[in-house]
Amino acid sequence: MGSRSDLTDVQWERLEPLLPVSNGRCGRWRDHRQVVNGVLYRIRTGVQWRELPERYGPWKTVHERHRRWSADGTWEMLLRRIQAETDAAGEIDWDVSVDSTSVRAHHHAAGARHAPPPSFKGGSVQTVKVARVRSELIDRLAEVAREVRRSAARVAGSLPRST
Fold first, then answer.
1. Which residues contact 151 (CB under 8 A, 6 or more apart)?
2. Which of 30, 69, 83, 98 has the most CB atoms lying inside 10 A of its own CB?
């Protein structure tokens, strides 16, 4: 049984070809999908690495792969490639989006929408589904990339400074 943070089959099909392959020197890697889902679960829930559910495999494996891919830029590369692919398909609207955590809404903004939401520019239901899958995958990868950047900033800020 998966969790809501696990990748769907369609998302996995988009991501899998972009993932690094084992060089064979270190033996076989544990299933990438299982490990990526473990990283997503940990990022989404905030649990300690040691508290990862067993369905994601050994926590040390998930942690080590996350650490390794953070250090070598794999997470950033995945995010950039999926974004570029989605943008090339015309499925990203690059208009700036600001939510209420950044800017307070005017007090007249409270209440229900009076007009129906604008329709998607793409057209068909299938196009909307593909765009949603890519968008969700980008959101998940962006979440991992943000966590990696925050972690790197914490480490950089805590290093002893020598003169």
1. 70
2. 69
Q: Give the Cβ contact number of residue 130 at 10 Å.
A: 17
The answer to whether the CB of 118 falls within 8 A of the CB of 14 is no
Q: How far is CA 68 from CA 37, 63, 92, in A?
A: 16, 8, 29
CB burial of 85-121 (b: ≥16 within 10 Å; e: otherwise) equals bbeeeebbeeeeeeeeeeeeeeeeeeeeeeeeeeeee
When pLDDT is averaged across residues 44-65 and rounded to a whole number, the result is: 93
pTM: 0.65
Pick the more confident residue, 107 or 86: 86
pLDDT for 107: 57
Q: How far is CA 137 from the centre of its chain?
A: 6
Amino acid identity, position 136? E
pLDDT > 70 in the chain, percent:
67
Q: Residue 4 is encoded by which pair of tokens?
A: 């809501």
User: What is the Cα–Cα distance from 49 to 43, expressed in whole angstroms?
Assistant: 10
Question: What is the C-alpha to C-alpha distance for residues 75 and 51, in angstroms, rounded to an integer?
Answer: 22
Query: Which residues have C-beta within 8 Å of that of residue 65, sequence separation ≥ 6?
Result: 29, 30, 35, 39
Domain ranges of the chain: 9-93+124-158
Please give the single-letter amino acid code of residue 59: W
